[in-house]
Every structure is written in C-alpha cells, then in structure tokens.
C-alpha cells in the first residue's frame, strides 16, 4: 500500500499544474456548498436571536408571519392597532412575567421609529441572553428624546446631542414631517446585529403627542410657531391610547399554549398571538426554494469539477500506457494499476476538500466582522458539523465513482499491453 501511495504522489507531482487546477476546482465547489450551509445556519440563528427569550408576540388580528415581520424585523406596516387597555390587561395576567409595548408607523430618513417604554431596554434580548447596552449616552427620559441604533448613527453620522425630525409614514413613503418638535439624540445603542441597529426609539407618550399634533393640524408641518406647539403639548394628555404590538415573556413555558389560545379568543378585540419560533419556521419554509437553488448551484459546480477530473484522467491514459506497462513488468497486478488511478483521484479530491475547507475558514474569519455589522449574521467556528462531514464524504465518494471509468480502462489495457506499446 505504501509504495502505491508514494507512486501516486510522485505521479501527481509530475503533473502538478493540472493536479493543482483540478484540486482548486474541487476546493471552490467545497467553499460554495459549505458556505451556503454556514450562511443559512447563521441567518436562522440571527433571526432567532432577534426574539431571544420572547415567548409570544401579540398584535391585532393578522397573519402570524406579517405580525412577526413588522413588530420584530420592522418589515412592512401594522395592519391595525390594539388598545393600551388590552395590553395592560394581558400584562397583568399571573402567567405573564413581562411585556414590551411597541408602537410603529413613523420613520426618520427611511429608518423605522419605535415607540416603547423602559421595559424594552430591560427585557429585550439578542443572541439568546445578551442585553442592550450603550456606546454612549442613556435611555430616553423626556418627551422629545430619542435613542438610536448603531447603524442609524453610522449611516447618518449622528452623535449625542444631534436633532432628529420624525416623519409620519415608513420607508420612503412619508407624509408629514414633525419638524416643529425635533428629538434630541440622548443615547446610541451598541451594535447587536438585529433590527434594533436600524431603529430609532422614543417614548409611547412622544408618539402619542406626534399623532395628536397631526390630528389637530392635519397636512401641516410648517408655519406654526414653536411657542404655540409647546403650549399645546404641555396641556395635552400624552398617555398612549393605542399600540401596534407587544412582546410577552412568561413565568413558565408550560403556560405558552394556553395563553396563546386565551389571547386568540380574547373578546374585547380580535388579537393574534404568535410563537416566534413557529412563525420563523414558516418563514424558512417559504425561503427554502432559495436555499435549495443555492445548493443546486453548488452541486453543479461540484459536478463540473469532477467532470474536469474525469477528462484529465482520461486524457493522460494514452500518455501513461508505457508507465502502466513498466509497472506490470515490475510485478504490479492489473488491480494495482487500477488502484493507482483511483488513489490519484482520491488524493485530488482530498486535496480539494482540505484546500476548500481552509479557504472557507479564512473567508469566514475575514468576513465575520462585516457580516455581523452589516447583515447581523453571527458565525460560529465550532468545527465541522455532522451534516458537513457527510457532504465531504459524498464528495470523496463521487470522485472515486468518476475515476472508476479511466481506472477500469487502465486495468483492461494493463492486461493487454506489454513493454512494447504501439504509439
């Protein structure tokens, strides 16, 4: 066995340029296939991390996925509001440990504005157990104070003390600019890799004041004196009447299904209670076609790489007929000749797998800060998972299958050829 290994290595070294290109093609397919799996797992982990330790998301009657998207991921708009009375009633239930109210619908230069209270800072968790913290400043306390996420601060170049004008409407569609009462940036949150980074946070009372102003002066965002509005706000009750949704944490997970059913059957107003994990499973099922498409692309790249290996082995057979004949003359059996080609193919595939694994690791290490900062994807390097081992084994077996044809031809020829080979 050892002479066969040495002979295969020396044979590949003599054709090192061709061998290197073949191994590199296999390596690229390994990078693509395993990279897709790693990114897919990181995306799932990141999405789940955005609702860590949240047992339920409650909002007005709508589809579970839509409720989760607009309340947690700030994608889309609330279909309806729910009363603060309903939120406080559910918050007072004995099985409920905490709630976090969310009022949405306003934005600033395309970034969503989230109205909430102190429980947002106290109870919101990401990456399973990490709590929110500040790069600088503090949580809002006064009516016209705002706390911004890391991406908002970076992209808009905001710092503590800057003024922010909130607009009614979300995304690029805004209708009223509340520029008579700008908000002062009093806090900048540390980057979390979640939608928190892309959000601005104000109090529920501030959101109520903005909406009351719009009701009092519909369609007007300019032309009123600051003193007039200030006087108006001081005499208005800023207690919130409506919210878009709220997050729920329970005393015990055993109460989850019972409370979900109780909320869904709430008689005062129609509600939807979503278990985040289940709703995210629906989301991933809907996106499975994208994942499978990327897998297919990786499989096609691997197929092209293995085809290139087959062509290389076949094209060198005629050139190596004298080599095979000499081996036979020195006592090598036809099976040994066949095994030599199979072992060469295995070495090429193994070299490609090792090289691909190394390239993937280097790429992920280099991209890790960018993926976490820009896309919220947290990559973990805990070794190769069992599923990835299976993929690598399949690649090696596929290389052996592809090499069987040229190896079998070498076997047949080694039976017929002698030292005299007609060229």
Determine the mean pLDDT.
Answer: 80
In percent terms, what proportion of residues is strand? Answer: 15-25%
- Percentage of residues assigned to helices: 40-55%
**What kind of sheet is the major sheet?**
12 strands, mixed
Order of helices and strands: HHEHEHEEHEEEEHEEEEEHHEEHEHHHHH
Count of DSSP H/I helices: 14
Structural class: alpha+beta
> How many β-strand runs?
16
Number of domains: 2
Radius of gyration: 32 Å
User: How far is it from the N-terminal to the C-terminal residue, by CA?
Assistant: 31 Å
User: Which geometry do the CA atoms define?
Assistant: elongated
Spans with pLDDT under 50 lasting ≥5 residues?
220-235, 418-423
Top keywords for this entry?
single chain; 423 residues; alpha+beta; 2 domains; twelve-stranded mixed β-sheet; two-stranded antiparallel ribbon; 14 helices; 16 strands; disordered C terminus
Chain-wise SSE layout:
Blueprint: H1 2-14, H2 16-49, E1 56-60, H3 64-72, E2 82-83, H4 84-91, E3 96-108, E4 111-116, H5 118-123, E5 125-126, E6 130-131, E7 134-137, E8 145-148, H6 150-156, E9 163-164, E10 167-168, E11 176-177, E12 183-189, E13 200-203, H7 204-216, H8 226-234, E14 242-243, E15 245-250, H9 256-264, E16 271-274, H10 276-286, H11 288-315, H12 321-329, H13 334-375, H14 386-416
Parallel strand pairs: 4-13, 8-12
Antiparallel strand pairs: 1-15, 1-16, 2-14, 3-4, 3-10, 3-15, 5-6, 7-12, 8-13, 9-12, 10-11
